[in-house]
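Whether sequence alone determines local backbone shape is best considered at the level of individual chains. Part of our work consisted of pairing the sequence of a single chain with a tokenised description of its backbone. This step matters because it turns folding into a mapping between discrete strings. For completeness, the protein is quoted in full, as a sequence line and a line of structure tokens:

_____
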Amino acid sequence: SQHLEALRSTAPADYVDQFDRARRLWEAPDSTVDRLQELGDLTTLQDEVVVTHYRWPSLDPEAVLSIIEMLESEVEPGTTNWKEIVSIRALILASLGRLAEARPLFDTLWTLGGPRESIAYMGLMPVNAGLADPSYAPGPVEHLLVLPTDPEARQIALHRAMLYELTLGRAAEARRLGEEALAADSAPRFDFLPSLIEAGFGWADIIEGDTVGGLQRLRSALDEAGYAHGPVLHWSQQLRVALTAALTAYPQTRQEGIRRLRYAHPIDDIVFYGPQYLALGQALEAEGDVAGAVEAYSHFIRLWDRADPGLQPRVETARRALERLGGEARG
């Protein structure tokens, strides 16, 4: 509230109003669905709806998905807005472990956009998040290295392919693609991209066993790239998740990793939201925070209640952890 009061003296009223509506949703999550249905323009609060959904155990995932479906029904099919809403619904389903339900949506985006549109590559995200193997997104995978001639687009495509290789643990190939991307003549409006490529080199270092040096390189490069909204936030997604995983793996940096797992939830990271609660439970358990671990594991189990059979071993991991800690799933 104090922040909003200060903001009102310096920012336009409509800008402040967006934060105020987000605050009300955050403070009263149980009324989210009813309040959204009373508003005229649901798309302005779409991001807040999604983030709130994952943060609050009292909200049913199906209720949030129904809101996204309602938004989808109000937009003309095939338009840019429609494709964006479809992609969010697909990513939510994937983050809940429901890849079979999400795949037709990802396939639709690819059919409509193909290699020409970046949104058509959304089907790669479950692969990049470690939820699916490359066969889940055959079109995007096949076209990863069909490189455009335009220097700006070429560098972006090479960076995307570099991240894909890092996801699969192929550090040497990722380095090759990164070096090729750096050799491309990029336009100034993408001046943050070399920093993201440098961060990718840091991730490659970690994969190859240089944990300390790689972590420092990854963190420094991400700090240099910045965390502003827009392309830099979207294109740094996997790198930020890799940084969090590296931080939580070691006692000296685990608390920072836990803070990131708890609070670093930009809308671009939807596909990682569900799995991160399992990672949070494991990190808290390693720190000896039994109550926090039980809460995180329980939340993960609730979110993944309808996960695909192939992903159920992760749910069983959480259930066994609860048994070990003497807790019960809450939901």
